[in-house]
Amino acid sequence: MRMSDLVAQYILEMLDEQNGSAEIKRNELAGDLGCVPSQINYVITSRFTPEQGYIVESRRGGGGYIRISRVKMDRGTTVMHIVNSVGKSLDKATAEAMLNNMLSAHVLEMDIAKVIAAALSDSSLRSVEQENRDILRADLFKNMLLATNT
Fold first, then answer.
1. Residues 43, 87, 85, 141, CA torsion sign
2. Structural contact between residues 24 and 11, judged by C-beta atoms closer than 8 angstroms
């Protein structure tokens, strides 16, 4: 397992244990996990974003911390939030990460996520010119999510 996955897993466990909100001291966490503090920053900025259902606050200085809170939204609000966060293009890796986050948050069921992933795969879009795939992928993703939200 990669270090970023271990850091994310550790933070998720903290959130579960602390009812959806955890305060992290970056340097302490890095020391506990045996990584550099910038790795903690990377994980937080890439995996704990508002689009993924988290609020991140930080306080700098000697007594500084990073507070991560899980936002509680109903399914419809979550889906609309995700649809609105997808821009004009969407690469395959980001689409897969969003689907995994939606599975973890119980926003999608596994069978629906598999169908969406298959439709957004490069093999499904191979007849589309490379420079247009991410644009089409974003449109497909948004429309399929909206269709699941009815």
1. negative
2. yes
| pLDDT above 90: residue 2 | no
How far separated are the first and last CA of the chain, in Å rounded? 37
Cα dist. 28→14, 23, 43, 64, 129 in Å?
14, 11, 15, 11, 47
Phi/psi region, residue 134 (left: phi>0; alpha: psi -120 to 50; beta: rest), is: alpha
Model confidence over 10-62: pLDDT tens digits?
Answer: 999 999 999 889 999 888 998 999 999 889 989 998 888 876 778 898 887 76
What lies within 8 Å, CB to CB, of 55 at 6+ separation is 68, 69, 71
CA–CA gap between residue 79 and residue 76 (Å, rounded): 5
DSSP string, 99-134: HHHHHHTTSS-HHHHHHHHHHHSTTTTTTS-HHHHH
Global model pTM greater than 0.70:
no
Q: What CA–CA distance (Å, rounded) separates 6 from 144?
A: 31
The residue with tokens 């599975």 is 103
